[in-house]
Amino acid sequence: MKHSRISLSLAAALFAATVSFQSLSAAHADTTLLNVSYDPTRELYKDYNAAFAAKWKADTGETLTIQTSHGGSGAQARSVIDGLDADVVTLALESDISAIAKATKKINPDWRTKYPHNSAPYTSTIVFLVRKGNPKGIKDWGDLIKDGVEVITPNPKTSGGARWNYLAAWAWANGQYGGDEAKIKDYIGNLFQHVPVLDSGARGSTTTFAQRELGDVLLAWENEAYLASDEFGADKFDIVVPPQSILAEPPVAVVDGNVDAKGTRKVAEAYLQYLYSAEGQTIAAKHFYRPSEPKLVSADLLKKLPELKLVTIDDPIFGGWAKAQPYHFGDGGTFDQIYKPKK
Amino acid sequence: MTLGFTLAYLTLIVLIPLTGLVWRSASLGWGGMWHVATDARTLNALKISFGTSLIAALINVVFGVIVAWVLVRYRFPGRRIIDAIVDLPFALPTAVAGIALTALYSKNGWIGRWLDPLGIKVAFTPVGITIALIFIGLPFVVRTVQPVMEEIRKEVEEAAATLGATRFQTISRVLLPGLTPAILTGFALAFARAVGEYGSVIFIAGNLPYISEIAPLLIVIRLEEFDYTGATAIAAIMLLISFTMLFVINLIQAWSRRRYGYAT
Amino acid sequence: MRHELPQPPEAASNVWHPATTESRTARFILVGVALVFLGLFLLLPLIAVFFEAFRKGPAAYFAAFADHDALAAIRLTLLVAAIAVPLNLVFGVVAAWTIAKFEFKGKAFLTTLIDLPFSVSPVISGLVYVLLFSTHSALGPWLKSQGIEILFAVPGIVLATVFVTFPFVARELIPLMQEQGTTDEEAALSLGANGWQTFWHVTLPNIKWGLLYGVLLCNARAMGEFGAVSVVSGHIRGLTNTMPLQVEILYNEFNTVAAFAVASLLALLALVTLVLKTLLELRYGAELAANGGH
Question: What is the ipTM for the molecules in this complex?
Answer without folding.
Answer: 0.81
